[in-house]
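Appendix B.2, paired examples.
Example (i):
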Amino acid sequence: MARVTSASPGALMVDIKLSASLDEPIEVCFEPISTTFNLDPGESIYLRLESADLAGLEIVHWSGSIAVWVNPYPGNYSVLGGDKEILDEL
């Protein structure tokens, strides 16, 4: 799920929701910096990025894990909790 949010002047920001299933935890790793979050069943986090950076975003899922590659790096990326509080700046 992607949601457009209010943006700073000149930049349109997008929130990408990453969720664990209701019955299993999942690990979400942001590359190339290897920042990792462990989500409990049903828990979600969001990646906030500029819409111009969507083309460089790659999300790969396999059993028990999601890898999110942000490009360009460094860039304007934030990881938000379920209540949209900032957990980390990538």
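Example (ii):
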Amino acid sequence: MSLIEAYENSLKEHLKEFNIKTYLGEFNDKDKIEALFNKDECLVFFDFINESFLNVSQREITYKIYVCSKTSNKQRAKREECKYKALDKLSEIERALIDTYFINGFKVDLLSLAKEYDNATDLGFIVLYSRTFKTILQENNHTGLVDEL
């Protein structure tokens, strides 16, 4: 198992309460985003962005966490509620990440927050935010999650 695969498995396990999935192009077709929802709940994905070698045994990896929220109500107050629901969910995920060390990794550094998409449609309102984060992976014989500090 590759170092990145081991890290991603640990990340999914650690964030399983958020029903997080690996991002596999689900937002590429903006017209089909609404079809991803079963109801007005947040969708949560993570995506590998890049890797840089720091030295022979360490790599810096960058990821994005995507949180997408939807409401079928087009009223302004409901759209604002939808926006804050996504940001609140992202904050919960961030709290779960910032004090966690992985055996093959270091502490997570949270980077930029961005709005990737928002749209009011005939069916309601959708908003998509992403949080970029990075960590360092250390080559070793262990994989998995270390207890939180």
